[in-house]
Amino acid sequence: MDLTFAAADAPVIPLHVIEQDSLEDWLADQPDRVATWVRGAGFTAALGTTLLVPDAGGAPEMALAGYGDAGARARGRFHLATAAMQLPEGAYAFHGLDPARAGEESLGWLLAHYGFDRYREQKPALARLVPPEGVDPARLQAIAAGEALTRDLINTPASDMGPADLEGACATLASAHGASIDVIRGDALLEQNFPMIHAVGRAAAQAPRLIDMRWGNTGPTLTLVGKGVCFDTGGLNLKPGASMGLMKKDMGGAATVLGLAQMIMALALPVRLRVLVPAVENAVAGNAFRPGDILTARNGKTVEINNTDAEGRLVLADALACAAEDPPDLLISMATLTGAARVAVGPDLSPYFTDDAPFAAALEAAAVQVADPVWRMPFHTPYETMIEPGIADLDNAPKGGFAGAITAALFLRRFAGPARYAHFDIYGWNPEPKPARPKGGVGMGARAILQALPRVLDL
């Protein structure tokens, strides 16, 4: 796939973006031949519709893209990505599009070219876009490349994306941008005090590991921690088959922070970036950790295991504790952590938790600007008692089922230390195809974070 804009010297076909209530006014300004063609084709400018208009010789003279009305547009995003998929090969330039929407629609056009082609040839869009005035083509292409990396990692099955493969993907990314990488594997995790990462991953065929990537020498410090559970059987609390089918995406947090890291490095943001990925497979074997076990985390807190399927918070806890030993200016964790978050907000929103009001304000403004919706959830301190079992410091799976996303986030907060901290409980999967977002793995929250960073870190 080629997620880039059209060459500057390409012959350009005008693409007129027309709202429904403006169609007749637009037609009144066109030659009779064009108006007759458009009316004869039944084009109404409904959202998502397109029409190619030929010149007198039959070659494409212009194209039309229906932009509906404000109510229709509010029910989705990246609306002109549909035109990218429907129009024939060529280079197109927007006409009549509100400049405030040019960035979103240009990025959506690029992402419409994404196709996961590792195992089967895909047919991405052939229509290219000339970048509109006022957008930064290099920035949008870097963002599209980061999103494509996230999607590829999530879409790859665990047979080709186990802990060793995820490490390889990190190494490739580090090499491309001059970052350093350090990896602690297998029993060395015990020797270097990452006991919960080891416990969760020790039953798998591929050894568990902690991947530590660093980039940048100046500026504020930013640490990203991503859950890298490459497949989650549920462990000895085995998932039913219906719940196991999508578990290749349980490393979606790692995939998303790596996509975000790619964006940050490609755009040369003036930060000192650290990425921590605990990469494991939660498998079943004679040495698997058990319900009732009590584990001691890196920071010395004890954790009673009441469900081995609540493993993501365990591996994140050790990684967060490591990050907290050298507190960054901003610490962010991302994970496909709880079904409760999906029940609360569905698959399209990125729920996040933070006690930092300025971060939340910056993030939510950024999310609107870049069409990457987020939703703030509460670190509700009175629920702390729900994660305190009495026999140990913490409970990894509180009974009762109430507030599952909140109790998981409160668990993680115990390990994040004094840093400004935000946790994202994302889904990482698009269950139905939508403009610029085919069914499958998808990044969530990364673009909003990228947009917010200059304000949050005073870059």
UniProtKB/TrEMBL annotation:
GO MF assignments: manganese ion binding; metalloaminopeptidase activity
Manganese keyword on record: yes
Keyword match S-adenosyl-L-methionine: no
BP GO annotations: proteolysis
GO cellular component: cytoplasm
Domain Cytosol aminopeptidase: 307-314
Keyword list, A-Z: Aminopeptidase, Hydrolase, Manganese, Protease
Family per record: Belongs to the peptidase M17 family.
Name this protein carries in UniProt: Leucyl aminopeptidase
Organism name: Roseovarius pacificus
